[in-house]
Amino acid sequence: MKKAKVFAGIDIGGTNTAWGITDISGKIISKSSFKTRSQNDFSVFSSELSSTILKEVEKLGVELAGVGIGAPNANYYTGNIEQAANLQWEGSLPLRTLMEEKFKTKVTVTNDANAAALGEMLFGSARGMKNFIMLTLGTGVGSGIVCDGKLLYGHTGFAGELGHVIMVAGGRECGCGREGCLETYSSAVGIVRTTSQLLAEMRAESSMRKLPPSELSSRIIAQNAEKGDPVALEAFNFTAEMLAIAITNAVVFSSPEAIILSGGLARAGKLLTVPLEKHINDYIMPVFRGSFRVIPTGLPESDAAILGSAALAISETGKLD
Amino acid sequence: MKKAKVFAGIDIGGTNTAWGITDISGKIISKSSFKTRSQNDFSVFSSELSSTILKEVEKLGVELAGVGIGAPNANYYTGNIEQAANLQWEGSLPLRTLMEEKFKTKVTVTNDANAAALGEMLFGSARGMKNFIMLTLGTGVGSGIVCDGKLLYGHTGFAGELGHVIMVAGGRECGCGREGCLETYSSAVGIVRTTSQLLAEMRAESSMRKLPPSELSSRIIAQNAEKGDPVALEAFNFTAEMLAIAITNAVVFSSPEAIILSGGLARAGKLLTVPLEKHINDYIMPVFRGSFRVIPTGLPESDAAILGSAALAISETGKLD
After folding, report:
1. Closest residue in chain B to residue A258, using alpha carbons only
2. Do B248 and A166 count as a contact with CB atoms less than 8 A apart?
3. Which DSSP helix (H) or strand (E) runs through A81?
4. Residue A236 and residue A222: Cα distance in Å, rounded?
5. With an 8 Å Cβ cutoff, is B170 touching chain A?
């Protein structure tokens, strides 16, 4: 009897590495995760990860048709992870080459936000869409841009870094070495910075004044905003305004039919989306008014990273055979 | 004997309408132009334009294989010109439908900056490139974005309006009804506005103080900058800085291998490009450093619009047969 074809989706993050085995429809058959820092040597890490997955494939009695890997700074063209600041391995890591040796099947790599966009296109909120932008509002801001049904990689393979559009020349210091990038404003860390600044600028009462700045988090700010804290509400308003300008600028660039939001800050829901819609309405160029929607991710948080990486494998190899 | 195949390129501008007949290599066989305002009725305008070209095709004894038309606010998908502010005809104009009735061959329309980008790709500075951005720095700022060898049209057909990315929230009033758009800073009109502002802010001597503001032009500012006028030099520096931020933001979006500049302001040459390169170097995200070039148009000014529109026809119909 012919074995059922499956795909492996792997998400290498700064803290955890998650992997799953799915069928072509995105149904997860098996999954697991472990600490990324468990191995200091990248080739040992790759070896252990691949042999764990291959054992599971054998146990399930299925055939591995392709592997997709999402990782910070992973380049679709070269297959390498290039100088990822939040991984413990330095320099250029030959991720695809190492993994293809182990898996003996096609391995495709890209960064985590690009993989997330493919996950939405195949299994989530962007099913049937040919033009959309995925924004992951976490510690930083990641993005994956789909134009005409394909992920935008550009000349270098690094296209789609909307977290690093400059919103304010000479603005807040960014981890990328520059100033005023979107992710210094409209991320989970950005809203904490905004709140610290507003606590200095505003005179309003706020229970957040009793917290040491190092204990502020986007979650605490959201909890305070829910209770009507004026500083927390203004922090969401400002965060949403910066995001609205970035979104309206992205719309004049590629004219998507949807902007899909995911990540910790997006889970604040209406606290973010109500002021966001208002500001988009104020800033949008008239010809694009009503031409796109802002919608939440259609994937469960726990599986989104695995499904994104599996979608990468499926979109590259699923049509073969 | 089989007739030689040719293509018609038509550029409908606010002032002039130019047309030309080219072979598939972009060699112009015949061309002419007339005042766009010569006809108040759009269908009469279309009729006269098409019959003039068809007569020329007959005279030349060639076969018309396709027609491309560049016009302000022309939509590739619908084939209509939509509410073009600088044309005398109002509302939605069924350009493609009218023209296909007359020409009896495939007619393709898009906006002038998109056509210019195709002209560069087939016959100009972008030959052999798959990822680049064309910026036309004229009265306004137009753009055409090519990703993976194709023009970006997006969900609406209006993608690629980089003249309307918001550079400064609450900034200068723009013709689009919003504030702070790139074209209010880095266009021929933008540098005049900047110079007026600098004449108020700076105390430096400048012979431009003797001119009524309505007589200032990008050309006069360039002439003064050539002579070392400090206000004119600072105007170019500021114009270049705003353009550099917009370019570096476009680079994180689509990672092009080149930015191609054309239009009146681009003709200032090194006055613009020397400070532009400096500011790009300051603002570029490290991962994209050295990944793209800023280069001038490769087409002669007099023929660029015709060649762009002809390239549109050739890219749509040239591969048939």
Report:
1. B155
2. yes
3. strand A81-82
4. 8
5. no
The answer, for B85 touching chain A at a CB cutoff of 8 Å, is no
Contacting residues for B131 by C-beta, under 8 A, at least 6 apart: A154, A155, B146, B147, B148, B254, B255, B256, B257
Cα separation, B170 vs A185, whole angstroms: 18
- Mean of the per-residue pLDDT values of chain A: 95
B245 touches chain A (CB under 8 A): yes
On chain B, the residues whose CB falls within 8 A of the CB of A245 are 166, 169
| A19-38 per-position pLDDT tens digit | 999 999 999 999 999 999 88
Nearest to B18 by CA among B313, B312, B303: B303
Is the minimum CB–CB distance between A130 and chain B shorter than 8 Å?
yes
- What is the reported pLDDT for B319? 59
Indicate if the pLDDT at residue A83 is higher than 70: yes
Q: Does B166 sit within 8 Å of A248, measured CB to CB?
A: yes
DSSP structure class, residue B149: T
Tens digit of each residue's pLDDT (9 = 90 or more) over A55-68: 999 999 999 999 99
How would DSSP label each residue in A131-180? SEEEEEESSSEEEEEEETTEE--TTTS----GGGSBSSTT-SB-TTSSBS
Task: Sort residue A21 into left (φ over 0), alpha (ψ -120 to 50) or beta.
Answer: beta
Which chain A residue has its CA at the smallest distance from B292's CA?
A155
Residue A124 burial by Cβ neighbours in a 10 Å radius (0-12, 13-18, 19+): buried
Give me the pLDDT at residue B174, please: 96
For chain B (321 residues), the mean pLDDT of every run of 10, in chain order, is: 92 94 96 92 94 97 97 95 86 95 96 96 97 96 97 97 97 96 97 97 96 94 98 98 98 98 95 98 96 97 94 82 43
Cβ of A166 within 8 Å of Cβ of B245? The answer is yes
Give the tens place of pLDDT for each residue, A241-251.
999 999 999 99
Contacting residues of B for A145, CB less than 8 Å apart: 253-254
Residues of A in contact with B164 (CB under 8 A): 252, 285
**Cβ neighbours, 10 Å, residue B210:** 7
A201 burial level (CB within 10 Å; 0-12, 13-18, 19+): exposed
